[in-house]
């Protein structure tokens, strides 16, 4: 291979590795639970590698012996080999795997002891409703948001998960294992983030045409920052602070928007679509589809199905001035 070709190959490998690093990995754990799961992964990987090495070694050994003119060892030896290699060894290996699984499951359940922050997560085609029930510390009011799970660092979070329609699965590889969201039932998931950060999550169960665009973020912040956000979300949503935002609010309430969405403290109280009370603070729109920018939001409002085919939100007939005003209003919420 020429030096230039080698350079390109190295650049390609670097790119591939670079893009791998951008995706969240189970092997980059940031919680006690994910750490335990990653350790189980490595144990199983080591076991698999050992089995592979033994089998490959036996194949090579056989070939070398044959070539050297050795004869078969006879029927008894073959029978012994089948019983040991085909029955005893797999049973032993699977017993070890079963032990690792049961042991890890027990450890994961007990990795973050203590009082937990209760959060309800409801899966919808194709977005995530996140509800912080009223009560908790200091009688905090209920808060509803979407596609972003805000949590305080170092405090266990206890999720109760359910589905409004079909099967979904909640997965944040760096923080916890997957758990299914099942229509008509609830499941739970407990974890605690060790460091502040934004962790990528996704639906991990095929749930329809936009399954791949059912993503979310877990935003772990210092307890003080989380408490401030929680307190701010307790009151009515931010009121318009400019003439443009005021026109946007009026247009929002007059347009079909208010028929599907809630903005706390306004006449918009519908629950078909995501609650938009803190919309301006969200990093993405369309459940991870696009960055939450004014330009993207304008495109989304005018024709969401063009950006995310199959989405429930219909195209909305609005004048460009109305769209601009609604965008200004929504981007200021939070
Ligand atoms: Cu929800 Cu896949």
Key traits:
Immunoglobulin-like, five-stranded mixed sheet, alpha+beta, 8 helices, 42% helix, 334 residues, 3 domains, binds dinuclear copper ion
In short:
By secondary structure, the chain is an alpha+beta fold. It contains eight helices and twelve strands.
Description of the molecule:
By secondary structure, the chain is an alpha+beta fold. The chain folds into three domains: 32-109; 117-233, Sandwich (Immunoglobulin-like), CATH 2.60.40.420; 243-331, Cupredoxins -  blue copper proteins (Immunoglobulin-like, Sandwich), CATH 2.60.40.420. It contains eight helices and twelve strands. It has helices spanning 3-22, 32-67, 75-109, 223-234, 243-254, 294-302, 304-307, 320-331; strands spanning 117-124, 127-132, 143-146, 148-152, 157-163, 168-171, 179-181, 187-191, 197-203, 215-221, 284-285, 290-291. It has a five-stranded mixed β-sheet with strand order 3-2-1-5-8. β11 (284-285) and β12 (290-291) form a beta hairpin. The termini are far apart. Bound molecules: dinuclear copper ion (CUA). The site of dinuclear copper ion (CUA) has 9 residues, from loops. Residues 123, 126, 168, 203, 205-207, 211, 214 line the site of dinuclear copper ion.
Order of helices and strands: HHHEEEEEEEEEEHHEEHHH
Number of domains: 3
Radius of gyration: 27 Å
The biggest beta sheet reads: 5 strands, mixed
CATH arch. level architecture of the largest domain: Sandwich
Portion of residues in beta strands equals 15-25%
Bin the helical content.
40-55%
CATH class of the largest domain: Mainly Beta
Instruction: Return the CATH topology of the largest domain.
Output: Immunoglobulin-like
Structural class: alpha+beta
């Amino acid at each position: 291979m020429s030096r230039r070709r080698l350079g390109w190959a190295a650049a390609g490998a670097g790119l591939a590795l670079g893009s791998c690093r951008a995706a969240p990995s189970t092997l980059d754990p940031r919680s006690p639970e994910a750490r335990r799961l990653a350790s189980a992964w490595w144990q199983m990987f080591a076991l698999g590698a050992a089995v592979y090495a033994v089998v490959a070694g036996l194949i090579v050994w056989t070939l070398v012996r044959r070539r050297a003119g050795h004869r078969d060892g006879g029927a008894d030896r073959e029978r012994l080999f089948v019983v040991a290699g085909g029955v005893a060894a797999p049973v032993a290996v699977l017993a070890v795997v079963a032990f690792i699984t049961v042991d890890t499951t027990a450890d994961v359940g007990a990795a973050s002891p203590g009082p937990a922050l209760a959060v309800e997560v409801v899966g919808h085609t194709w977005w995530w409703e996140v509800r912080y029930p009223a009560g908790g510390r200091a009688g905090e009011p209920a808060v509803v948001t979407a596609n972003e799970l805000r949590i305080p660092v170092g405090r266990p979070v206890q999720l109760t998960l359910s589905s409004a329609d079909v099967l979904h699965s909640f997965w944040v590889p760096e923080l916890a294992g997957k758990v299914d969201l099942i229509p008509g039932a609830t499941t739970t998931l407990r974890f605690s983030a060790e460091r502040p950060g934004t962790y990528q999550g996704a639906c991990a169960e095929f749930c329809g045409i936009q399954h791949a665009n059912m993503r979310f973020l877990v935003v772990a912040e210092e307890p003080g920052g989380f408490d401030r956000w929680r307190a701010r979300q307790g009151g009515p949503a931010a009121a318009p602070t400019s003439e443009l935002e005021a026109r946007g609010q009026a247009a929002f309430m007059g347009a079909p928007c208010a028929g599907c969405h809630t903005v706390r403290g306004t006449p918009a109280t519908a629950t078909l679509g995501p609650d938009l009370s803190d919309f301006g603070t969200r990093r993405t729109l369309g459940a991870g589809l696009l960055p939450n920018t004014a330009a993207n939001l304008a495109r989304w409002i005018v024709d969401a199905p063009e950006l995310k085919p199959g989405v429930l939100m219909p195209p909305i007939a609005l004048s460009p001035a109305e769209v601009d005003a609604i965008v200004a209003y929504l981007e200021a919420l939070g």
